[in-house]
Amino acid sequence: MFDLKELEAFVAVIGSGNLSASARDLDLPKSTLSRRIRQLEANIGQSLLRRESNRLSPTEAGQVFYRYCHEILELAGRGQDALEELRGEVRGELVLRSHSAFTRGWFTRQVESFMERHPEVKVVLRTQTEPPRGDPGDDVCLWLGPLHDCPMRQIQLGSLSQGIYASPELLERHGEPRHPRELARYDWVDMMGVASDGVILHHPREGIYPLKPSQPSFRVDQFTLQGDAIVRGRGLGLMPHWLVALRNRHHPGAMQLCLPEWQGPALPVWLVHSHGQLPRRTRALIEHLKAGVPEAWNTRRVLEPVY
Question: In degrees, to the nearest 5, what angle opens at C-alpha 106 toward C-alphas 191 and 154?
Fold first, then answer.
């Protein structure tokens, strides 16, 4: 018989290609993870991993065994879920992922209130900057922005409208723009891809304006970092109004909206989960999150799955 913890360790290392990253994901010491891999290889009698440059990759035996590991772990999980369904209780572990935009606000508060309602539930919460791919073991992901070729079931909770923001000090030095064509003379704090790809601004009377910002002086992959840079006067940036309102609630006047009638593209908010029959705890969390969607995410949200 295989030890499920050893199988879980092996699957994690194959997924990340790195012992340190897998140890962080599993919340284990690196030495413990390494020991589990060695014990699994000893039990099987074959080497499962080899080092290539700075990455661990499966041997031929590892590639074959990896497929069966998924089936074993999935079957074990389904068995545990079936027993929980018989008890009619909401309990067990949830593995959640979240876009970094939500980790310090609404999502974490909703998860904590869910845990208070169901004290037998344990939660692992991880952040990510790439769209969900359907990684094994993940239960639910809260994502902000487009989803391209995502293999998981998707529920749109709402969307975040966006505008162009700057620090009051920067606008005092350089003046406020009166039209999008004037934005080229300002430095730009860029969330990855906005400056290079360009963005379409919308006006209720003047229509659309294709904005191609100046070459960004600062590029980031998290809205928190973008907001910090804008507040420090590094340049203008396109940000969701909802996130800016949360920041200004704690630091009034830290960011000022420019060209208030010009809106950037709205960013959809997605709740993503796997296909098939979900455990009771996952279903309960999804309903809890849907019931607590902020009004500021607009009223046109669609709370039905997208297949």
Answer: 75
Residue entry with tokens 């499966």: 58
> In a 10 Å sphere around its CB, with 0-12 CB exposed, 13-18 middle and 19+ buried, how is residue 194 labelled?
buried
Which pair of structure tokens corresponds to residue 240?
A: 């969701």
How far is the C-alpha of 43 from the C-alpha of 39, rounded, in Å? Answer: 6
Burial class, 260, CB count within 10 angstroms (exposed 0-12 / middle 13-18 / buried 19+): exposed
Q: What is the largest CA-CA distance in the chain?
A: 72
Q: From 181, 208, 210, 200, select the one nearest 265 (Cα to Cα).
A: 200
Whole-angstrom CA distances from 200 to 15, 68, 263 are 37, 47, 9
Radius of gyration over alpha carbons of the chain, in Å? 23
pLDDT per position in the chain (307 positions), as tens? 678 888 888 888 888 888 888 888 788 898 999 999 999 999 888 899 988 877 888 899 988 888 888 788 877 776 766 666 656 678 888 989 999 898 778 899 999 999 999 999 999 898 888 888 776 667 899 999 988 878 889 999 999 999 999 999 999 999 999 999 999 889 999 887 676 678 899 999 999 999 887 776 788 888 999 999 999 999 999 999 999 998 988 889 999 999 999 999 999 999 999 887 788 899 999 999 999 999 889 745 455 544 4
Q: Quick one: angle between helices 30-44 and 4-16, nearest 10? A: 110
Q: Is the dihedral of CA 251, 253, 256, 261 positive or negative?
A: positive
* Total count of residues recorded for the chain: 307
Tell the residue number behind the tokens 């601004």, with chain if given: 201
